[in-house]
Amino acid sequence: MTDTIAAIATGQQIAAIGIIRMSGARSIEIADQVFHPFYGGRLTAQRDRKLVYGELRNKQGELLDICMCTISHGPDSYTGEDTAEFQCHGSPMLLRVLLQELFTHGARQAEPGEFTKRAFLNGRMDLSAAEAVIDLIDAETAEAVRNAAGQLSGAIHRKANAIYTELMDMSAHFHAVLDYPDEDIEEFEIQQYRTKLREEKCALERLLCTFDRGQLMNSGIPTAIIGLPNAGKSSLLNALLGYDRAIVTDIPGTTRDTVEERVQLKGVNLRLIDTAGIRETEDRVEQLGVQRSRDAASAAQLVLAVIDGSADTGHDADGIIRTAEQAEHGIVVISKSDLKRKASAIDTALPVVPVSSVTGEGLTDLEEKIKELFPLPQVPAGEILTNARQADAVRRAAESIQAACEALDQGMTPDIILTETENAMQALGELTGASIREDITNQIFARFCVGK
Residue 179 — pLDDT band, cuts 50, 70, 90? Predict the structure, then answer.
């Protein structure tokens, strides 16, 4: 990491402000060649993290912009290296011209996530905090923002490190007693270690239990909207989204394929899937749509069974309700509540919510029911696992501690217990990045955008 990298840190659209950042040994030197402060002498004479007002000029001395610049010397910077950042007017062309000018002075284009990767490699943040950076950028709900910010501040690191320290102390004591039997070292008490191991295993299992919520928080709860043709499924989708996404007609079978959109309702992130009307049909294309509807209902964690309240319900409508009952969570939505009710009483233990997609009546009640089904977890901000890599590391650590407990219970030799304890420590090291392969590190940071 001896070279100097540069990248546009803001989007490619026209905006009020555009930012270019550099990191590396020559960052401040290069910035000094293109930026000329109005006051206070050269840029290298400025103190760290002070916004300096001045001119940007190319090698030919031509004015590119009048803007702000700030520098930071390593190791007290985001990346742990010397850095410089230009806050320019937000013209995409201006940013590209300035970036090319920096390249002519010796900087190179940063790779995706390279700034944060350097911060991790230079010890400015652990791996769980680095992953929280992209989670914070991608956050779509207030819950996701709070959790990512908590992880960025080190919530996962602190929890993992506390367990790691306990295991390390235990392991060191075991080694001392085994390696120096003639020394006056306090003998380990089996019951005391058994209790500690079980406490740490329980802590890891509680952390692991947050993973399902973390996945739903980031990717959205898969929610299938199912029903007979013309039951009001597409109208419900449009009403929940607040705009016309799906085509709505009075012709049965209009929806032939699934239509997917994301929406937040009462802080719950849903991945809504509007499906084709489920019915028997000779139309080959519609048959494919119906099968996709059934597949979507089988895979969904929430099924909204839409029943036309203005039509007589029959056996087919009962089948739609039974499908929702088989899902992990289900709600029966009685649509078209603004019209005269013809549907008979619904026989189900699922929540039943009358809704009018035309007037909006009942939509708030539906949102509340969904919120009740997916309450926010009562855990501190930042202690929700959000990706499979983190969950796998925690799971392996918990399994190793369980194996150590079983070894203790069965009276096995201390070296067996030590092996399992150290396996748990290795897994926790992968969670925070204290011990992780380079290829996995590269894979993680490949998810990032350029400039972050």
Answer: low
